Amino acid sequence: MSAQRPAAGRGATRRAAPVAAKPARRGPSLASQVHSWLDSHRASLRDSLGRLIQQPFGSFFTCLVMGIALCLPMGLALLLDNVERLGGTWQHATRISVFLDLSVSDAEGQALRDDIARLPQVREAQWIGREQALLDFQAVSGLAEALRELPDNPLPGGVLVTPASVDKAELEALRQQLADLPGVELAQLDLLWVERLGAILALGDRFLFGVSVLLVLTLLLVIGNTIRLHIENRRQEIEVIKLVGGTDGYVRRPFLYLGALYGLGAGLLAWAVLAFGLAWLNASVLRLSGLYGSDFGLTGVPLADGLYLVLGALLLGYVGAWLAVARHLRELAPR
Amino acid sequence: MIRFDQVGKRYANGHVGLHELSFQVEAGEFLFITGHSGAGKSTLLRLLLAMERPTSGKVLLAGQDLSTITTAEIPFLRRQIGVVFQNHQLLFDRSVFDNVALPLRIQGLSREEVAQRVDAALRRVSLRDRAEDFPNDLSTGQQQRVGIARAVVHQPALLLADEPTGNLDPRLAAEIMNVFEDINALGTTVLVASHDLALIARMRHRMLTLQRGRLIGDGAAE
């Protein structure tokens, strides 16, 4: 290229070629466009991954902060699940005592037990005859001598029913159904402790929801701030891209990948922390439950829950990035 | 190609960027816009890039009214325009090839076509052998030529240059102007905003002279 060129013949009018005279360019084919679109996404993903790797400590700690924030609601949810599981074990000990009329014979009582056992809501039904009831009462009451003096056995026969469900409404419906059976004098169910446990678990669920909402907002703020810093660092690049015809979607893409990658990292870290934390806690829980003659132990993070956690974190990262980019792009670049 | 029809631009702080400016540019023309700092040269270019809208009048580019253009249409308008900045606005963390390829990738061209066009654009500015280098490895003049290659790689109908030789010595400035002439020779309309009157005079093209947002001269540079 030479700096000295002949000036002759430089008139604009001589060489001016109208735009229409330029050869018409055919647009790229659909296949080529799809290919380019995929290429562009691959490039954005590679670029975002590269930026995370370029700052390993910064990226790791951002993911860790987000991961710990995710651990809190997820850990609480897992703990509540375990308490519910424990409560469920207790609830299965819930029984309905069905007292029969004194006029009901042993044979009729046995037949009634069989009828009750066939009900789908019943897990188990145990017949206790009048004689057996008296013997049991003598054994536990300390009134054996006095009871022996009675002319007749005052105790009715009964059926001890173990329900299949632990739902309060279903238990009450079953109790009512049993009370309505012919020959039944009384069907009794103690629901108070079930209600108390249910109330505690409901409180826990509500608390968990509140904590989850707060931490989701925190995560969105963390990711939003992180993406904002990335946008600030790439201000010039964004301006250039917009000036050469980049759409908002094109500008947004690498930041969305960045947010999703942060989320993915946070989700994986949270899963790892929870799995480790529960395993660590489980040793103490096993020792404690062993003292009560139980083999109850904490379950770890189920695979499905872990995958939901990672997916949720990834989506949170994506949404956080989207909000941050939408908020800051207009301020930064020409329209 | 370009028509300014009684175009006025007043900023929110009351400053008047352009005052009832009217002129027309034919397709394929080479035009200088000159004037002192604050004369309205950059405002004029910003209106053509739809970075700003006129407060009065009409700006027409290839028949399209830029005063009513929608936000969604702007990127597609800019794909028809090449822009060269005084400070070349290169991305220093990307190679020369990647800088020049940017407009083509944005437009979704295939890898093969990108490679082919970038090669042609770099050949046009005599930097074909520097494709893998990074902008920091190049001289100021070479960096500006990379900026020009990026501005023309997508074969725009219109090339805008805002003080493209502002940071260059006279020899490099002349080199850059020669590149613009070559591009213009292929039919691209070229608008160069510059206050380097000596350089403009040597080029002997049409020149618009602005002063405080008003057009005070329109004719061949002498």
Radius of gyration of chain A: 36 Å
Largest interface: A-B, 42 and 54 residues
Counting DSSP H or I runs of 4 or more residues, the number of helices of chain A is 11
Could you tell me how far the N terminus lies from the C terminus of chain B, measured between alpha carbons in angstroms?
25 Å
Low-confidence stretches of chain B: none
Mean pLDDT of chain B: 89
User: Largest sheet of chain B at a glance?
Assistant: 6 strands, mixed
Strand order of the largest sheet of chain A: 2-3-1-4
> How many strands, which pairing sense, and closed or not: the largest β-sheet of chain A?
4 strands, antiparallel
What fraction strand of chain A? 5-15%
Mean pLDDT of chain A: 81
What order do the SSEs of chain A take from the amino end to the carboxyl end, as H and E? Answer: HHHEHEHHEHEHHHH
The order of strands across the largest sheet of chain B is 6-7-8-3-9-10
Shape of chain B: globular
* Total E-strand runs of chain B: 10
Structural class of the helix and strand makeup of chain B?
alpha/beta
How many individual β-strands of chain A? 4
Residues in helices of chain B, as a percent range: 25-40%
Q: How many helices of chain B? A: 7
